Amino acid sequence: MEFPNYSEQTAEGMLGTNPMLEAGLMGFLGIRHSGCGAGWIEAELDVRADLLTPFGTAHGGVVSALADHVLGSVMYPVMASGQWAATTEFKLNLLRPVRDGVLRARADIISMSRRTAVVRIDVTNDTPEGGARLAAAAQGTVSIQDPR
Question: Does the predicted model carry a pTM greater than 0.70?
Answer without folding.
Answer: yes
